[in-house]
Amino acid sequence: MDLKAVKLLLEKNAKKTWNPLGVKEEYCSMWAEGMNFPERGEVLLYTGCLYQMIPYIDMFARLLKGFESMNPALFGIAMKIKALADSLGLDTISLLASLEISKKDRERYFRIVRSIANALLSAGVKFAYMREEPYSGVLYHDLGMDDLFREHVMRLAKKIKETGARKVITIDPHTTYMLNYLIKEFVDDFEVEVVHYMDVLLERGYTPKVRGPKEVVIHDPCYLARWNGVIDQPRVLLSRAGVKVREPEFTRKFTGCCGGPIESLFPSLSSKLARKRMEELKETGSPCFTVMCPICLTNFQREARELGVRVFDIMEVIE
Amino acid sequence: MTDLTGVSQLLNKVSDDPVLRTALDRAISSYWKKRKQVMERYPYVKELADEVRRIKEWSIDHMDELLDKAIEAVEAKGGKAYIAETAEEARKIVGELVGTGKVVTKAKSMTTEELKLREFLIERGNEVYETDLGEFLVQFLGPKPMHFISPSIHLTREKVAEFLKDFMGVEVDKDDVEGMVALVRKFLRDKYFSADVGISGANAFAADRGAVFLIENESNIRLSISLPPKHIAVVGMEKIVPTMSDAWKVVEVISRYGGYKVTSYINTVMGPARSGEGDIGPEEYHVIFLDNGRREASKDPILKQTLYCLRCGACQYLCPVFGIVGGYWAGLESAYSGGIGVMWEYITGDKETSTQHAFACLLCGRCIEACPMRINQPEVLREIRRRLMERI
């Protein structure tokens, strides 16, 4: 993979759609159609679009892996990169749109987001939601593209401010960390309280119901457990619903990474890391894994069939 | 420079190697087990690590001042101190001290690996032996030390048995690790007595007394540096701490986080043998303080934390990427390995290659949990990425 091409691709897509994969903001909000959330309010639900983007991330990852596995002797690296930049950089949107994410593909992830929103509603939380929801920008930061990240989060901060929110509820670990810590290094007056939805549910004394398997092995997402310190929360929610939780050898603060974060630059290595971690999880004796991060979900999901396991988001296990 | 294909191919290839995978799996699970036992048995070590972090922070901020004190202390005891600004300068100093046609015994040391000192001395017509068992294997089997304290982490006992059988020309039982250790010991025993020079690094250096601290398990260091008439210690400038008591704290933290319930030996060397007082040991004590990018890094607000690294290897054992690619991460040309290795290489060696390797980090942060100094490797590695991304 060539970093120049990656940078170019991300910049081009950002310019067109404010999204690294060219996913449109109205798509990010599509899950909420018919739910009639207000656009302004004291409390804002901000999803960061990461769950919604899974089908696109997945498609992109498969594509990249294809590029990576081409024989370089037959296909000059430069050509690969150029092809990548041309086909994706210029036309990610039309390319992905032409492949079209099937309704079924996206429905699973929309449903997870809806399930979170519904749990919050059932717990008595009132919140606003943006009709065209921006991505969090976290990938730009991870890659060291600080200029793009700054531009992105300044716009995001402004949009959040426009909703009148003083408190933002987040649903994934990366967006949570970004809003809690990173954005403050780049935006001066970002003074909203950021809280993960599980904390909100616990604070409200919410008791979920079982929706999926009655026994799961828990995989702590790195950014949730280590960077945001959300460790007991999912366990409490699962146990309130009566779900039995198995702990792998490397768990809580010592949890193992799903490999997802290097998926765009080292796709094959990323899937090997996923497998390694999944084998650790499987050793607990349970074939049902629960994760609480869209990146873990998609990275594990791709390997799940071959390993004979099933991967659930926590909001597919409980509701 | 911006094409990661080479890095990606290297890491992909080695991650498919079943021998490497077996070796890493065994080493990592054994470390994890030992680490849990150590933490249970010595619960105070976390607080001690926090204290050492404060000592290191202070020491890195006062590097020049400590360096002056250290040099003064070494010379007050009759030793000789040198400052090497670059790797080349360091090799030149050692080259002149050793000469040619000599026998050199070496203690395992990452800093001398950074200098490619063994290769340099051999090229100048010396016979050089690594005396740490793991490092001895790396000397003959390559490709490089694959871990800070476990340099042959990439080799299975089966591989080692195969090598020793050829090298020593005797039958070797692959399940008799003790027997293999004994074979190498016997081979090296003669070398200690015929050696002209012993070379070591330092796990810590106490500025107040001019003392090198060396941790070991095989008693090879003791023999390598006390039997030959000349001892040369190569000390990275980040190793200097103010006092003997600070240095003791450093070595305890290193060995505990390295997974040792009991470290067999800790050596302190404070100077040459004094004549007429019945002292045994080398007549000459030379200490080379190595800069090679360290002073510059000590002034960099983000890179600086790399210098707190004690090289205990805990982060390498617990890094998911290291777990499948081992020491190949950071590249074969670098003496250093893993995410922390990328950082060390960036400071002391090849900025271009290390920058490329910086992109293989997951930013998952398990290294921070593993590290006694809580070095934020993701922060440093991301910073290295940023420096490239903003100019391409």
Verbal overview:
The complex is a heterodimer of chains A (319) and B (392). By secondary structure, chain A is α/β, with parallel strands linked by helices. Helix content of chain A is 53%, strand content 9%. In chain A, strand 3 (167-170), helix 9 (173-186) and strand 4 (193-196) form a beta-alpha-beta unit. In chain A, helix 13 (267-282) crosses helix 14 (294-307). The longest helix of chain A is centred in the middle third of the chain and has 20 residues, at 103-122. Mean pLDDT of chain A is 91; it is low at 89-94. With 392 residues, chain B is α/β, with parallel strands linked by helices. Chain B is built from 19 helices and ten strands. Chain B has helices at residues 5-15, 18-41, 45-61, 63-76, 87-98, 110-114, 117-123, 133-141, 157-168, 177-194, 220-226, 244-257, 294-297, 314-318, 320-325, 338-348, 351-358, 366-370, 377-389, and strands spanning 80-84, 103-106, 127-130, 197-200, 204-206, 211-216, 230-236, 240-241, 265-269, 284-290. Chain B has a six-stranded parallel beta sheet, sandwiched between helices. In chain B, a hairpin with a 4-residue loop joins strand 5 and strand 6 (211-216). In chain B, helix 3 (45-61) packs across helix 12, helix 16 packs antiparallel against helix 17 and helix 16 (338-348) crosses helix 19. Chain B is globular, with a radius of gyration of 20 Å. The model of chain B has no long low-confidence stretch (mean pLDDT 96). Chains A and B meet through helix 1, helix 11 and helix 13 of A and helix 1, helix 15, helix 18 and helix 19 of B.
